[in-house]
Amino acid sequence: MKTMIRKALAVAVLAGVSGGVMAGTLGETSNDDFVITYTQDALNRIWGLKDVTIEDLDTATAPTGDPVACMYSNADTDVTVAAENAGSNAFLLRINSDDTAGIPYEVTLKDASDDSSLGTVKAGSTSINIDNDFFDTQPSPLAANDACTTGGNIKVSVTANSSAGDPYPEGTYKDTITLTVSAN
Predict the structure, then answer these.
(1) What is the DSSP string of 87-146?
(2) Phi and psi (nearest 5°) for 3?
(3) Whole-prediction pTM value?
(4) Disulfide-capable partner of 139 in 1, 34, 40, 151 (CB 3.0 to 4.6 Å)?
């Protein structure tokens, strides 16, 4: 009786509990299939940025030496470049980091191939959206920092704005800005 029950269970399993045909059926050959899935996260990188020394207020100033840097994204969406600076995002060049007054400035990113503007970050507007099409031609994300001088795809310029009739006290004015690239 136990043998008969085992055979009935085996037939039920082979035929499928719902009565359908099972993949991997018993026979001289048998086959089945499976799906392989891999999900690649969005990867972004910005590198090769150089320091900027401003000679004249109200004039767009490129970094010392070559103004070209690199930005990479494999995202299938637009990309956001967010700017954060040491001065609570006031975008002010200051003699001391705890000063409340300073020289306002803005940072413009441009397409290195044609100098068209990708956007400007400044006080009150601390991020820009870059269309995904910009990344159709881009440097390898594995390139070294110095490779950006010949293969970079962005240019950076800084404009510090003077206030009419308001001379600034003598001193060296500074700020540190961090650009963060992320997929939308």
Answers:
(1) TTT--EEBSSTT-S--EEEEEEEEETTT--EEEEEBTTB-EEEE-GGGGGS---TT--GG
(2) -65, -40
(3) 0.75
(4) 151
- Tell me, yes or no, whether 140 lies in a domain: yes
Residue 172 sits in which domain range?
Answer: 44-183
Query: Does 16 map to a domain?
Result: no
pLDDT of residue 64: 59
The residue assigned the tokens 């001391």 is 96
User: Own/partner pairs for 62-67, CB < 8 Å, 24+ apart?
Assistant: 62/155, 62/156, 62/157, 63/156, 66/149, 67/155, 67/156, 67/157
What pLDDT digit, counting tens, does each position of 26-77 carry? 889 999 999 999 998 889 999 888 888 888 787 777 775 667 888 999 998 9
β-bridge mates for residue 130, sequence order: 79
How confident is the model at residue 83, as a pLDDT? 92
